[in-house]
Every structure is written in C-alpha cells, then in structure tokens.
Amino acid sequence: MLTRANRVLLGLVGLGLFALGGGVLLGGLGLQRHWGFRMPGWWPFRGPNDVLLSAEGRTRWQGQGWWWPSVIAVLAVVFVLVLWWLLAQFRRHRLGEVLVDAGDGAGARLNGRALESAIAAESQALDGVSRARVRLTGRRTAPAARVRLRLEAHAEPVEAVRQLAMETLAHARNSAGLNRLPAEVRLREVRHRAHRVS
C-alpha cells in the first residue's frame, strides 16, 4: 500500500514539476514566439519578463477576512500530510498474518503477532540472550523475520546466531509449514555498570 502510494505521489509530483518547468522554459526563452505557437490564455509565462504571480494576484484576497485562516489551514493540512508521509517511510510494514499450507489444498491463516511472540520467547530462552524482539515482514506467503537479540556479557554471538537459525527459526518454519524463513539478525550487548572493587 505504501509503495503504491509513493509511486502515485512521486508520479504526480514529477508530472507537475515537468509541466511547470517546461512552461517556464518555454516562456523564459520565448520559444512560443520562435516556434510559432501560442500558450493558453490562463498561462502566466508568456515571455522572459513574466512572473508566476503578479502584484495584483498576490494581493487580491488579502483584504478578505477568510483569506489568512484559509491559507494557514491549507498549509497546516499540507504539513501534516507531508509529516505523515515522511514518518511512514521509516515505519516497517508488519505482517498481520501468515498463510499456512495445510496440505489439503485449503490454507490456514496464522496470526503474525502470535508467530512473532513464539519466536521471541524461544529466542529469549537461548543461552546468553537477555532479550529478543521479532518482527515479521514480507508477504503472507513468503514472510521474513527481523530479529534483535540483546546478549549477556558471557554470550558467544556465533553460538547464539547458530542456535537461533538451527533451532528457533527452524521450529517456526516447520510449525508454519514454510519452505523458507529468511531472517536478518541484529545483536547488541547488554550494558553493565562497572563494579567498584575495593
């Protein structure tokens, strides 16, 4: 959904900028005079000395009581929409459900958060792991896992990743009937305060 909205938005902005830039270029270079065509009557750029908004256009509505509240409201709406769009870029899509092949031709749906919780609980039970967070991304038929592990000071990162891949993720893959469950694992260590020795 977000990818489609991004493409539509970028396409519309690109078309608008292309039309505006082309019109300004045509007017600024006086190409309509050289090439022998006319721009529409409403188009503001007809020659090199034309501006986007004339003094009359800029000051026409300033005396009206509704003008400034309308301008502020429109700018506030645009600001909120742009802020929402920007924050949506950083938010990762979370998978709501996973389609499980039941083997009889009819699939079942597994709650994505339930599978995340199961993987996190089993990951947290591994030796040396103090905390685990899991997020499923991708498609319902081909999920992928993002796993964050906080390791204790005595933990061996290679062993923790091996156990996660060979045990925890293998159990999740088998229980959901998936052919594969790719995972991105991020490791961090738990910070301990230095102990004072006297």
How does this structure look, described?
The protein has 198 residues and is of the alpha+beta class. The chain has helices at 2-29, 31-35, 55-59, 67-90, 112-124, 157-175, and strands spanning 97-100, 108-111, 129-138, 143-151, 183-189. The strands form 2 sheets. Strands 3-4-5 form a 3-stranded mixed sheet. A two-stranded antiparallel ribbon has the order 1-2. A hairpin with a 4-residue loop joins strand 3 and strand 4 (143-151). Helix 5 (112-124) runs antiparallel to helix 6 (157-175).
Short description:
With 198 residues, this protein is of the alpha+beta class.
Question: Top keywords for this entry?
Answer:
GMP Synthetase, Chain A, domain 3, 3-stranded mixed β-sheet, elongated, 198 residues, alpha+beta
Structural class by sheet pairing and helices: alpha+beta
In the CATH classification, which architecture of the largest domain applies?
2-Layer Sandwich
Total domain modules: 2
| Strand count | 5
- The gross shape turns out to be elongated
Radius of gyration: 29 Å
The CATH class of the largest domain is: Alpha Beta
Average pLDDT level: 81
Instruction: Bin the strand percentage.
Output: 15-25%
Give the H and E element order. Answer: HHHHEEHEEHE
Count up the helices. Answer: 6
The CATH topology name of the largest domain reads GMP Synthetase, Chain A, domain 3
Task: Give me the CATH superfamily of the largest domain.
Answer: ANL, C-terminal domain
